[in-house]
DNA sequence: CGGGTATTTGACGACTGTCAACGCCAGTGG
DNA sequence: CCACTGGCGTTGACAGTCGTCAAATACCCG
């Protein structure tokens, strides 16, 4: 988990982001692109299994994830991790409006990733000057909040099988909205190790394995070469008590 | 859980809120009080055990809690509840910036409560006109988010004892910041039933009872007549792995 | 091809849930 | 004043989900 970022380039325009239509970049389609141009910092690239930021640091930067998967988590005193959220391309992470406060979670790349960083204070002044951007951030936060609530419900009340299936289905939906799944076969990229799944669901890795094996032998999913295929959407949504949200 | 609100009055000024120095009202100390004056809706009063809003409704209003305790929760398909957050005086609840979207959680009064309502769209236009208010909302959301993360960590990784103790200590700190505890004896008002504790912690009511009994027999707390006293702060913080946040 | 990483499997036990019954207390109404 | 009722807390028995430990196997990347 070393920390070695590569500055790809001094990017010409941050709003060249391939996923402009979601996340923060959606807001940048307005007049304040001009301002934004001057605020962006460099674009960075990190390999898999690299710490992006730590919960004890001061939060100087926020990021937009262009490509890759991140695990946002909180460390437990016993050394374990509790996963909070998996960030996919287009997601906005690390924002902490309380100036000079430490982050309340850590972030780790699960795959090689490309991000675009913003100084928090620059974002702050952008938001003051462009209320529509502030509203946009507010809405992103609100959506994250809703997902947090769903997460709490899952960990607090669902069985191991339900939690895992829910996680898979949620990822499928989010990837689908990004055009990253094969809709025909319902196959998705799936770079999560069982340990990461256990982090996200509050289970042990061993138990995750048992449940995954059962899902496979029940012919609900197949999973090989970091690709996961859903074999029975209806039954899966029932097990995971999953309801597709309007947007992801 | 009937739903019968009482409109106390057409309040003269919403910013007469007794807890002006926290929550949204903090922001109202600026120039846009004038605007805000025209936006507030009525002040309402509800008895204990009354639903304030439901997760399936459209979210037309947001509220500032003036007095009382609320439980924000999400219903589980099996009929159970998963507690998300306990709101105390001064807290801002029910905000959902995605216009016309359903709420993602329900709210229930645990004690008789007094609230001040805002139309969501009015809040929205206030925020557009007064970016500092938008920033304020952003910061409130961010703080709630941090608490959500802590909650996820607790439910996902802590033992029953740890979760319950953490909940108690967090409430103590928040009440203390509101001047609602007897600091000498470390005694706080505690209107939570064991069922509500079980909702918040993801445990069963019976097991909550067992743990509470143990805490009492271990002389870590006493609890009677809806008053709870902390007897050993140091040991409690260790059991609950509790760290006082800078602000509440 | 080799070494580290990830997955798999089994045995065992603990934490926590479920069910059921009982007691306590406050508010209510006769 | 007292019986009644409903809500809440308490207790015991029992079961099951899930964690822990440990070891073997399969997999992947250099």
Describe what this molecule looks like in 3D.
Two copies of one chain form a homodimer. The first copy, chain A, is an alpha+beta fold and 248 residues long. Chain A contains seven helices and twelve strands. In chain A, the strands form three sheets. In chain A, strands 1-2-9-4-7 form a five-stranded antiparallel beta sheet. The longest helix of chain A is centred in the middle third of the chain and has 27 residues. The first copy, chain A, is globular and about 55 Å long. The interface between A and B is large, with 46 and 46 residues. The first copy, chain A, binds a DNA duplex (30 and 30 nucleotides) through helix 6.
- How many strand units of chain A? 12
Secondary-structure-based class of chain A equals alpha+beta
Task: State mean pLDDT of chain A (0 to 100 scale).
Answer: 86
Quaternary status: homodimer
